[in-house]
Amino acid sequence: MRIARIAPLFILLVACTRTQPVTTHKLTVAATFYPLAHFAEQVGGEHVQVINMTPNGIEPHDYEPTPQDLAELEEVDLFLYNGAGLDPWAETIAPNLAAKGITTLRATERIDLLEGHDEHEEEEQHEATDPHAWLDPTYALYIVGQIRDELVAIDPENAATYNGNAATYVSTLQLLEKHYREDLADCTLREIIVSHDAYRYMATRYDFATHAIAGLSPDEEPSAQRIAELADLAKEKGIDTIFFEELVSPDLAQTIADEVGAQTNVLHTIEGLTPGQSAGATYMSLMYENLESLKLAMHCQ
Amino acid sequence: MTKQELAIDVQHVNFSYNSENVLDDVTLAVEPGAYLGLLGPNGGGKTTLMKIILGLIEPENGSIKIFGKTPQDARREGKIGYVPQRIAQGDSSFPATVEEIVRSGRTPIIGIGGLFRQSDANAVEEALHAAGVHHLRHRLVGQLSGGERQKVFIARALASRPKILILDEPTTGVDIGAKEAFYTLLKELNTKHGITIVFISHDLEVVTKHATCAACLNQKIVVHCSEHAFLHDPEVRKLYGDSFSFVHHDH
Amino acid sequence: MTPKYASCMATAFRSFTTITDMHFLLEPFAYDFMLRAFAAGILTAIIAPMIGIFLVTRRYSFMADTLAHVSLAGIAVGTLTGIHPIFAALGASAIAALAVEQLRSAKRVLGESALALFLSGGLALASVLLSLAKGNNVNLGSLLFGSITTVSVTDVTYVFALGVVVLVVILILYRQLFSISFDEELSLASGLNVGTINRILVLLAAVTVSLTMRIVGVLLVGALMIIPVVAAMQWKLSFLRTLLLAIAISLFSVVTGLLLSFYAGTASGGTIVLVAIACFLVGLGFNRR
Questions:
Q1: Cβ contact B88:B40 at 8 Å
Q2: Which of C176, C186, C238 sits opposite B84 (nearest CB)?
Q3: Are C245 and C235 spatial neighbours (Cβ–Cβ below 8 Å)?
């Protein structure tokens, strides 16, 4: 008799505990580097657990995954990578993961990629493409949209949240884009010298030229003649800021700066956050910092 | 008449290595101008005795004086010249002229940071002449024959104007003709320049033929300045047995 | 080479070249950074064979490479701890130099094996430490192969100071070093303090490695110290003339190598060493007897 009364209660209890895992289940998203991880967090919110594969302070161009990393990847729900040569290791394993039923997304899928180029016309055309699309706010928008689409596809139950989060973040990106467009419109100097060739999407969109000390990858050693060329260029055009980056040695930028009496300043590639960056630095805050640095270097109104 | 100072005065010297007795109560008195040949088996202590005379190691007991001074002092003054053994097999590609090698004989005397003076140049000239290699002075030492190279090493030893010349197995790897010329040179240095000669050899014939006195060292030492006495010494006979032939010659 | 002085020289060169239209040939000298590279390179070129000749004649040629690899480990430590690379390299290679010398004199048999141990040990340690230091702005390429584009004023100052020290010590100890290199046993017998002088020589080698590293890179330090000497030895001259010729060959290699690497965009270290090897081949060819 007593058992009969307890039983329904008991069943109810079990049923309730059964539903709990469903409501607190998080998707695991692995991203190959910071911007993708950050966008995924913005869109996914509390429904996702995001892993950034490249540790802080390491250049994504250089990163090589450990066996542990690869094992971890087999357990994720979504794998985000950039493609276009930034994370070649990811491009290799993505098909394997897809075959195992994991959703993969190449961020540069629908972006019109620029080809790598050399300022010396005599050199051969590079096969390489320029992967630095995330530094253009418009392309960042595309990427965020794609991430939203994938999350909705994997987890339709939370589609509303994803759409909402994405919309919010997209509007901040649109504001960023507006500032870039307006603030870089009226500048006396429309050329900058940077450490590696990461800014051409930004430059193409907002109509200025970048001259890179190294090539598409910061590991490429520039020749002494290149340094001499850039020094001459800086003197000729009156460039008084030479940009360097956090994850790469600033020696080369310093050499040119010393040669022409310019100052050096940092331009973030936002490929990763460094331990040195203040807590709370995000893609957005770093893009705004870049804007200020660009305005200063290009003498904008 | 005052007693003339001994060139080498070794008194009751003992030395052991890893509790093995290498030198056992060795006494050796070498007068200035002597020409001594030192014989003995390998492991008998010849090298150890040389090192003590050169001041490189200290005897456990007994005393050693070179012209009344400690070996180290005598060496600092360049009184002892040393010609090492393995010359014929020496490195033939070392880039140095005969003159440079002989000049380096002045290095211990010039010391650190000193300048090469006229007195040094004179000593080098004399040494080159005395050893008979003056005509080879600009030749590379690696291009010389074994015998010529040997003379260069003697010149180097002579550059410090030594009163004593110690030679360790000097004619190893030198051909017969050069050997004779070599010992003639030593004799000349001894009689004409008054240099005390001590040479180590394993060759009984060479010692008895060229030296005036002979010593045989096998932990204990026996010294004779008469060939007859030397050859008939029981210790010498024990070592060299009956397998040598007596070569009679004039002294 | 103060910045002002360098700029002054650079401006002078620029005016001179435009006037005389020798622009192309003298182009590198119009840049401060190239002048610094040449300054460091020339000082290095003079010092390297002075130590090298004593290493080669004593069959110690691998000492230079060993010290260079250990220096790399030192630099890795320096990057992690913030010590200037030249001094980090110096510290590490000085310790290794003394250790190797100690092993060598204690048990002659282990001479080469001791070097092999430090050679690979140094590189192994360096690779592990550098993988830890990856985020710390380490430019591996310029460490390994030399860099003419990033020689700073501080670098030139250190190279000059250390170079003077090495030069002075060698001049003072020249006679003793010669004697010991020719015949160590004989030198010992004539009362030279062989042990101390040997230790001084390997320490000087360590110093020379650390200042040669900048221009030529760690992997080729040994080559610059050894090859000009070997090339000079082909001419079968006296020791002193061999040394002077080695210095001349070294200077020629460095200056030509730096000019070539400027125009051709090649790695400075490799270019310099290839020129030195060419000199060796010329010497070999001329002296076939």
A1: no
A2: C186
A3: yes
Query: pLDDT per residue over C159-203, tens digit each?
Result: 899 899 999 999 999 999 999 999 888 888 888 889 999 999 999
Cα separation, A243 vs A239, whole angstroms: 11
- Measured CA to CA, the distance from residue A148 to residue A82 in angstroms comes to 16
Q: What is the pLDDT of residues A6-34, one digit of tens each?
A: 656 555 555 444 444 444 678 899 999 99
State CA A101 to chain mean position distance: 25
Strands B20-30 and B8-17: antiparallel
**What is the model's pTM?**
0.80
Q: Which residue of C has its CA nearest to A245?
A: C137
Check whether A71 has a pLDDT greater than 90: no
The DSSP bridge partners found for residue B23 are: B15
ipTM of the complex: 0.84
Look at A259 and C32 and tell me if their CB atoms are within 8 Å.
yes
Cβ contact C45:C253 at 8 Å? yes
Contacts of B100 in chain C (CB under 8 A): 178, 238-240
On the CB side of C35, how many CA atoms lie within 13 Å of its CA? 22
CB atoms within 10 A of CB C165: 14
How far apart are the two ends of chain A, measured CA to CA in Å?
A: 85
* Chains touching chain A, criterion 3+ CB pairs below 8 Å: C
Kindly give the residue spans of alpha helices, DSSP state H, lying in A54-198.
Answer: 67-73, 88-99, 137-154, 159-183
B204 vs B215: CA distance, rounded Å: 10
User: How many CB atoms sit inside 10 A of residue C246's CB?
Assistant: 30
Q: Using 50, 70 and 90 to split pLDDT, how confident is the model at B155?
A: very high
d(CA A295, CA A278): 22
The closest CB to that of A225, out of C32, C141, C262, belongs to C262
- Tell me the one-letter amino acid at A166: A
Contact C31 A251 (CB under 8 A): no
Sign of the CA dihedral with A275 first, then A281, A282, and A285 last:
negative
Which chains does chain B touch, 3 or more C-beta pairs < 8 A? C
Q: How many CB pairs lie under 8 A apart between chains B and C?
A: 65
